[in-house]
Amino acid sequence: METEVVSEATRGAILLTGASSGIGHALALRLAAEGYLVFAGVRKESDRERLVDEHPNLRPISLDVTIAADRARAAQSVAQCGLPLRAVVNNAGIAVGGPLEYLPIDRLVEQFEINTFAPIALTQVLLPHLRASHGRAFFIGSIAGRMGVPLVGPYGASKAALAVLVDALRQELRPHGVAVSLFEFAAVKTPIWAKGRAGAEHAIEQLPAEALAQYGKEIQAMLAQTKAEERHGLHPTVIADAVLAALHASHPRERYVIGRQAHIQSIIALLPMRLRDRVIAAALKH
């Protein structure tokens, strides 16, 4: 799909997290080309410097979503830009995996801090601006939040918790003219999965011998499965297209389930639990 490039931001401001790569990067460029002033949140200074030159409508900002001071500075940047805030897109996230029996609790806490608590906290500080503009709060979820899967429980749980919070937030904000949407999909060709695999491989090296004896086969099967899913995953621009459609819709949907694999997994999640367990086990070739 060809997009007309608008050289000046005239359609309002967008605050986007996790803009350095993958979905966030694709969406940042798409929104900028559509004429939005995009406050593109990144953690690394090198990413901020790189994004500066990619489009005149991009305003890269240093934003660690888990740090309150960073969130406050991001809200201040929006307030000072002179444009209405059309949307916040909570995209930043990480994927933590491994057998729960041996997972350090601080890693589980980190998973929830980044994927669940930070998006709500950032939206809180932006709500005065969203309420004033009748803007939108978008959250990048995952179909993994629909059901538990071995060895990726932390990631799925963080997205499940986010989905419930977003459901509540949507109902609370509807009377105030702020639309809230959740986007769910399966594998996407983004660095989060490569980073997750690298983290998992490092975690495997740290596991005690008894853990490898108990879970080694399952871990290797899961790593192979996630690698295969990523290879056949959606392109980030597919997600960017869905977010843009929701931004421009007069009445955006409550949830956007994107891609064939996500629809299949949403059906599997509805199966009786014992049957669902067998389907998942077969998929992982236990």
TrEMBL record:
The family database entries (Gene3D superfamilies) matched by this protein are listed as: NAD(P)-binding Rossmann-like Domain
- State one molecular function term (GO): 11-beta-hydroxysteroid dehydrogenase (NADP+) activity
Q: Which UniProt keywords apply?
A: Oxidoreductase
Look up the EC number in the record and give it.
Answer: 1.1.1.146
Q: A GO term (biological process) for this protein? A: steroid metabolic process
Q: Name one Pfam family in it.
A: adh_short
Q: Where would I find the Ketoreductase domain in this sequence?
A: 12-191
EC supergroup of this enzyme? oxidoreductase
InterPro entries xref list: KR_dom (IPR057326), NAD(P)-bd_dom_sf (IPR036291), Sc_DH/Rdtase_CS (IPR020904), SDR_fam (IPR002347)
- Name this protein carries in UniProt: Corticosteroid 11-beta-dehydrogenase
Give the organism, scientific name: mine drainage metagenome
